[in-house]
Sequence to fold (273 residues):
Amino acid sequence: MKFLIFSDLDGTFLNRKTYSFGTLKKFINKLDTSFEIIFVSSKTYEEITQINKYLNINFPFIAENGACIFFPLKYFEGKEMMYKFIKYKNHIGFPLTRFDSNKIKEKFNFLKNKYKFSFYDNLSNKKIGKITNLKDSDISLSKLRKFSNPIYWEDTEKKRSEFINEVKKQNKKLEVLDGGRFLHILDNYNKGVALKKFFKIKNIIDSRYLSISLGDSENDIPMLELTDYACIIKSKKNTNLTLKNKNIFRSKLPAPEGWKESIENILKGEKYF
Fold:
């Protein structure tokens, strides 16, 4: 049996404050070749590839909240593919959005006349550091956004709801999701849409697998509702997070320990150990 583990990063695999993955490198490196760890995150291509390098893994991943699915160059070697991919550095990608970081800013910049907010690429490194606790080198990687431009909200909660409604009025297919620190404007894609497309592509070469997803925020729900097992990693903000999924595990520990706790619980149930 193949295990596909789809995981959010911040607050799920990584501690939300320190970005530590604790002992997870040792844990996942002990898993055999029947496992693929597929990160599904708001992080950029460059951020995720750096994390994969630290962990010594080379699996597909989904960047910028589902905007693009990336596969290692030789992932489909010897297989005939019906999909057209873009080549980007050491990967091939399948974009799911028509936006890029500049288009989002051009389209919604006018709303600054009514609301206080900043696009990610307009925030200073110092401000991003205060918001995220990222190091300068990591901030530089986080700004290399190809498909999205997260919004840092600086106005009231009431106006936040009004802002979201105004964005949706521009196009009924637009979504505004809360990723914890930032708002994300998505054009007919999210983590769930990306997973559906991933499954279609993956099924061409292998349809025998068990899927597991792990997340901690509202923007993870579309992903968590599509897998055989869904794991909600403990945090102060997700106590009321509800899913349409029969197999839900809520960790008692926060990230990164809650990630290991969740996977071990499922694998014991599947009699892997």
